[in-house]
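wait is this the right file?? whatever heres the structure
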């Protein structure tokens, strides 16, 4: 350093003289200033002052004497080669001297410009959207309240600065926070004892396969000491000690690397003595931290411990070993008993310290870090991820938390779960309207993360249309355990395949799997058939009809979610909105874009009509029923697989009748008491359009003149659903119609007598409505039905249905519906047989005698108007059409036998039929039938003319 100073002084002295001679002294001061700036930055960047402080603090007077002696000698002899240098510099011109001095500045500037440039082009480091596995560095990030424990532990390790050498062991399972705990200790040491401690972290994982691991350990140790303490001879002592070990003839192995034991005990003892003396004289304690010791195999762990104990247990050197006792024994090929492992470690470790995690703190950690990670990802709705995580919170709060520890018992496992939840894009799952159960979802994710082979087995056996391996089965399914006793879940049981598979699993696997699929575990609190609709729609153990488990698998594996329209909760949410005060049902439903209108409306209305009556207010009852009456003609009467449920054909009339029975009796100031007769009469008043309901009568609304023959069909469907013989659970509706029609009509007793009294008045009113629009107007109902178009039958769903099926198939459905419509209408109006549905024909047009005058009137209408060729040239065709549609599907078309005349006389009077045939048979037989189309009757297909000759033979026998 002294020689360098002399050289620099000669250079600047020569440059000063030559600059003075050439009148360029300004350049000299500029160059001088530049060098001062360079020196300043070098001192700052290289921590020269800090190193100088180490030298001063060492108080090494011996080295100071040697330094000053050297400087004095150099100055006395005027340096080494200084005279030669001076002679050379004198010969240089000013410009050459200038270039010589400016080059170091140029190199310095260029180097620093490159560093600045690199920083500028380096992209800003974005925070990860997932939870990092990096350990905590400071107390601000401490989530497990380790700070106080770390302070106490760090003070014990410092041990008042004593030079006594100790080996501390920090024992805790993986992911518990050992590294975080150590980092907090390091923070305390740097804060409280910065000038008294040197910390050396040795990562054994980096050098496990290195042939010179001992050399790497010593090199790292020397480097750390050199950076914190001025001790030039320490490196020499360690190097000498290491050389003695490596050069000895007797060897031992560390990680498969052979190290020598010196045969000259005097030499090694002398070196150790010098090391001990030097380290004792240090006012610094060296703390050596060896983390992840449990990641090594047991043999390597033993070698590390022997090296520490025999070779490097020196004064002022303290070791902290971090490990998991259980994992040390697991990593050995021959499994070791945990107690034996502990016993072995105790031979080397002086003080053992164990870490434990509080479950409540672990839950808070999960919540906080999940929210932070979610906030960094552009989620559609971050709140939904929180809902998805509720299942994990339930686990932490459950009484079985101890059995979940292997899945969620430490920070690392929690992070894996959170990252998986974020990876699955659960922000797309709206749990308020989608059928995902948080309990089942988190358990399936735990299986997905911890046991991928089991999850793959679930996926392979339950994907597509498969079911019944993991999902529950009923007694009609394959692999149903018929020999088992009665299950707590009654009909639902685990298949024999599931039972056999579970027996092959270990206890942890069996536990987590049974939490989702075991019927006793999952369904014991919801015994069939009391299991709620929500449970049937969302539990992952069901996969037969609604494909619940399949939905979970698609979410986890493919991050795909079916439309919210396919979820039961979606309709429950809509229902809740509808039942809010001052919210109109039309406003709620007009905002919805249903994917499959018929299916979606069926699901929604099935939930609405099954609500308990206490949910309804009188205003809401009226609003809902009137809205249902309004939309009924807008829906399709056709039933088409996966496209149309034919809500108008049966479902909506049934819903109207059910609503009237359940809540139609409510008055504006009702006290929800269903016992008074005055209340139930309101139902009949509403049906017949009396008193408060004069403008909104059910029958009048259903059969308005503009609704035509389909309105008549709606009317008869509603009437049929009022039939107590068919709807024995509509007791309130029965009481209302019975007491309104005649005070002494029975409301209990023989079902036949009760039904006759109940249905009399509504049948008479319905017929008279038909009579007014058809009989009095001589309007042919056959013509109205035959002229119906696909648009008429499909309502506002026509375009949707057209887009889903081929035109040919749609036309076929339309042709098949017309015969059924006509058959139903005429049967309900004209049939007088009380044993089969009790048609209107059983009753008189008025009064209580029940002599069948309606049946007579319907026959007169059919023969005098519909079948009359004088009024309509197609009268004969309509007659044959009637006969075709009244074939009994169980005999005529299946067996090709001649049908029975009884098939036609349920509606037609036998004598009237006989007389009509005798008078018109010759003309009828000559006719060329206009209908060649194939149509469906029940479960088979035929044509209108397929059995015409059999029909003629039957009629000729009359």
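ok assuming it is, sequence goes like this
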């Amino acid at each position: 350093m002294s020689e360098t100073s002399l050289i620099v002084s000669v250079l600047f002295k020569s440059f000063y003289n030559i600059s003075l001679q050439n009148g360029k002294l300004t350049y000299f001061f500029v160059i001088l200033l530049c060098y001062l700036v360079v020196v300043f930055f070098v001192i700052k960047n290289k921590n020269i002052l800090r190193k100088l402080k180490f030298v001063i603090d060492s108080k090494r007077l011996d080295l100071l004497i040697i330094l000053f002696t050297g400087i004095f000698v150099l100055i006395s002899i005027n340096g080494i080669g200084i005279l030669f240098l001076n002679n050379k510099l004198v010969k240089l011109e000013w410009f050459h001297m200038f270039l010589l001095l400016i080059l170091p500045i140029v190199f310095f500037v260029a180097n620093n410009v490159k560093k600045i440039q690199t920083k500028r082009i380096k992209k800003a480091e974005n925070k990860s959207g997932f939870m990092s596995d990096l350990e905590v560095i400071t107390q601000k990030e401490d989530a497990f309240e380790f700070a106080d424990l770390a302070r106490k532990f760090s003070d014990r390790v410092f041990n008042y600065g004593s030079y006594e050498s100790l080996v501390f062991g920090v024992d805790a399972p993986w992911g518990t926070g050992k590294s975080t705990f150590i980092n907090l200790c390091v923070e305390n040491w740097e804060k409280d004892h910065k000038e008294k401690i040197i910390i050396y972290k040795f990562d054994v994982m980096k050098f496990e396969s290195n042939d010179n691991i001992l050399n790497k350990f010593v090199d790292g140790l020397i480097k750390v000491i050199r950076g914190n303490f001025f001790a030039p001879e320490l490196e020499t002592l360690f190097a000498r000690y290491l050389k003695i070990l490596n050069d000895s003839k007797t060897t031992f192995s560390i990680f498969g690397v052979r190290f020598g034991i010196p045969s000259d005990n005097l030499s090694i003892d002398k070196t150790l003595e010098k090391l001990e003396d030097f380290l004792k004289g240090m006012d610094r304690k060296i703390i050596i931290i060896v983390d992840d010791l449990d990641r090594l195999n047991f043999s390597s762990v033993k070698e590390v411990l022997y090296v520490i104990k025999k070779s490097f247990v020196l004064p002022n050197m303290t070791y902290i070993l971090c490990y998991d006792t259980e994992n040390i024994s697991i990593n050995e090929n021959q499994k070791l008993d945990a107690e034996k492992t502990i016993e072995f470690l105790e031979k080397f470790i002086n003080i053992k310290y164990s870490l434990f995690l509080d479950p409540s703190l672990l839950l808070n950690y999960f919540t906080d870090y999940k929210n932070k990670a979610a906030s960094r990802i552009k989620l559609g709705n971050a709140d939904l991820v929180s809902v998805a995580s509720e299942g994990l919170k339930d686990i932490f709060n459950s009484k079985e938390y101890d059995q979940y520890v292997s899945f969620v018992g430490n920070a690392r496992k929690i992070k894996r779960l959170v990252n998986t939840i974020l990876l699955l894009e659960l922000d797309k799952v709206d749990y308020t309207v989608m059928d995902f159960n948080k309990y089942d979802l988190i358990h399936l994710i735990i299986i997905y993360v911890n046991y991928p082979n089991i999850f793959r087995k679930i996926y392979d056996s339950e994907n597509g249309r498969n079911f019944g391996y993991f999902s529950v089965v009923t007694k009609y399914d394959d692999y149903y355990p018929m020999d088992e006793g009665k299950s707590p879940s009654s009909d639902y049981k685990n298949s024999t395949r599931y039972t056999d598979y579970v027996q092959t699993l270990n206890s942890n696997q069996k536990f987590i799997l049974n939490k989702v699929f075991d019927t006793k575990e999952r369904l014991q609190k919801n015994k069939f058939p009391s299991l709620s609709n929500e449970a049937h729609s969302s539990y992952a153990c069901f996969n037969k009809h609604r494909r619940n488990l399949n939905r979970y698998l698609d979410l986890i594996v493919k991050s795909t979610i079916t439309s919210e329209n396919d979820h039961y909760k979606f309709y429950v949410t809509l229902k809740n909105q509808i039942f809010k005060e001052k919210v109109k049902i039309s406003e709620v439903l007009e905002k919805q874009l249903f994917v499959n209108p018929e299916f979606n409306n069926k699901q929604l209305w099935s939930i609405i009509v099954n609500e308990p009556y206490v949910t309804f207010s009188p205003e809401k009852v009226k609003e809902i029923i009137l809205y249902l009456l309004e939309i009924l003609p807008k829906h399709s009467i056709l039933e088409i697989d996966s496209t149309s449920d034919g809500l108008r054909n049966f479902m909506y009339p049934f819903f109207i009748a059910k609503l009237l029975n359940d809540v139609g009796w409510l008055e504006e100031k009702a006290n929800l008491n269903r016992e008074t007769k005055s209340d139930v009469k309101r139902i009949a008043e509403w049906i017949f359009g009396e008193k408060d309901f004069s403008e909104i009568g059910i029958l009048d609304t259903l059969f308005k003149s503009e609704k035509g023959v389909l309105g008549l069909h709606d009317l008869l469907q509603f009437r049929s659903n009022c039939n107590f013989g068919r709807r024995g659970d509509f007791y309130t509706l029965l009481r209302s119609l019975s007491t309104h029609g005649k005070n002494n009509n029975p409301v209990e007793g023989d079902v036949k007598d009760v039904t006759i009294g109940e249905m009399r008045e509504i049948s008479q009113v319905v017929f008279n409505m038909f009579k007014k629009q058809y009989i009095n107007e001589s309007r042919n109902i056959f013509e109205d039905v035959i002229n119906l178009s696909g648009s008429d039958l499909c309502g506002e769903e026509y375009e949707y249905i057209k887009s889903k099926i081929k035109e040919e198939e749609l036309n076929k459905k339309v042709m098949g519906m017309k015969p059924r419509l006509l058959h139903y209408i005429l049967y309900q109006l004209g049939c007088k047989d009380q044993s089969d549905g009790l048609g209107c024909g059983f009753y008189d047009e008025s009064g209580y005698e029940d002599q069948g005058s309606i049946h007579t009137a319907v026959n007169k209408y059919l023969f005098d108007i519909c079948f009359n060729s004088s009024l309509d040239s197609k009268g004969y065709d309509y007659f044959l059409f009637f006969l075709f549609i009244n074939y009994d599907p169980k005999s005529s078309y299946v067996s090709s036998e001649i049908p029975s005349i009884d098939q036609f006389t349920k509606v037609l009077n036998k004598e009237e039929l006989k007389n009509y045939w005798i008078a018109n048979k010759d003309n009828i037989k000559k006719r060329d039938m206009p209908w060649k189309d194939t149509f469906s009757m029940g479960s088979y297909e035929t044509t209108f003319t397929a059995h015409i000759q059999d029909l003629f033979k039957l009629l000729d026998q009359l």
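The first helix runs from residue 2 to 21. so i think its the right one actually
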